[in-house]
TrEMBL record:
Family label: Belongs to the CvfB family.
InterPro entries registered for this protein in UniProt: CvfB_fam, CvfB_S1_2nd, CvfB_S1_3rd, CvfB_S1_st, CvfB_WH, NA-bd_OB-fold, S1_domain, WH-like_DNA-bd_sf
Domain S1 motif stretches: 70-136, 152-214
Source species: Siminovitchia acidinfaciens
Name used for this protein in its record: S1 motif domain-containing protein
Length: 289
């Protein structure tokens, strides 16, 4: 008979009752079904279908809760805790969360999943029969995928980052589309497991899509204008920057190109919020701000 193994579903019978629960057996090995896992309608005389895992003391234990994520079965799991020296813990529906080892995560910890992010996982065990989460591969993810239609071009799309590459990031959208975000189409590199929202900038023949996380032109102008306006307010309504300022100075102060700065300033001037004079920009009616 095969050895009982964490991460699997088995049928066990009662061996004996103890003060802290029931020991169940396959005839060769016994595992504990703790009293916290025993429902009111539990019938010890019936064979039980249980899921095996390690309890907090590292002992093989049983639960009547059968998670969707188990050995050979994948699902999305939420990250509930991040431990820098260990990895991230995911919740699969059990009272004990499961570790995804740091060895299976990006080398840079800033790209690790954060609490609330989601990972597509299965389970695996090591040589000591300890249970770990295992990330789905590209092949596993593509089993979920469906082709995108051309009509979604330029539409907004949300998806979860499942793979980090030198040239960009792969996501799978809420609809099941496989998407790629080139590094030139983002302000920062998203985390593994992060939900991102962007727009479709290309639909390829295989049904996958290219995505940009950069704002649309009018959104970028609004954001840049808000940044400049807030800076002006913080300085009492005056700043030594205007359309003819050096690009390097604008980049250092506002983290935007001179072209973006000029477009945002044009918006603020058109709205009558600012004026420029002698190398300075001033809020209009600043005493009312």
């Amino acid at each position: 008979m095969a050895k009982l193994e964490a991460g699997t579903i088995v049928q066990l019978s009662e061996a004996r009752e103890v003060p802290f629960g029931y020991f169940l057996t396959d005839g060769e090995e016994d595992v504990l079904l703790h009293h916290t896992e025993v429902p009111e309608d539990f019938d010890p005389l019936q064979e039980q279908t249980v899921f095996l895992y390690q309890d907090h003391e590292g002992r093989l234990a049983a639960t009547l809760t059968i998670p969707d994520i188990r050995k050979g079965s994948f699902g999305w799991a939420e990250v509930v805790e991040v431990k820098e020296n260990l990895g991230v813990f995911i919740h699969i529906g059990l009272k004990k969360d499961v570790l995804v080892s740091k060895d299976d995560l990006p080398e840079l910890s800033r790209l690790w999943p954060a609490k609330g992010d989601k990972l597509y996982c299965t389970l695996k065990t090591d040589k000591k029969n300890r249970l770990f989460g295992e990330l789905g591969t590209e092949e596993d993810i593509r089993k979920l995928a469906k082709p995108a239609e051309r009509k979604i071009f330029n539409k907004s799309i949300k998806g979860t980052v499942y793979r980090l590459l030198l040239e960009g990031s792969n996501i799978i959208s809420e609809e099941g589309y496989i998407g790629f975000i080139h590094r030139s189409e983002r302000v920062r590199e998203p985390r593994l497991g992060e939900m991102v929202e962007g727009r479709v900038i290309g639909v390829k023949d295989d049904g996958s899509v290219n995505i940009s996380l950069l704002p649309r032109a009018h959104e970028a102008i609004d954001e840049d204008a808000d940044r400049i306006y807030s800076y002006l307010v913080g300085r009492g309504g005056n700043m030594p920057y205007w359309d003819k300022s050096h690009p390097e100075d604008i980049k250092d102060r506002f983290q935007m190109s001179k072209g973006s700065f000029k477009r945002a300033m044009g918006k603020l001037m058109k709205e009558g919020k600012v004026i420029q004079k002698d190398g300075w920009t001033h809020l209009v009616n600043k005493e009312k701000q």
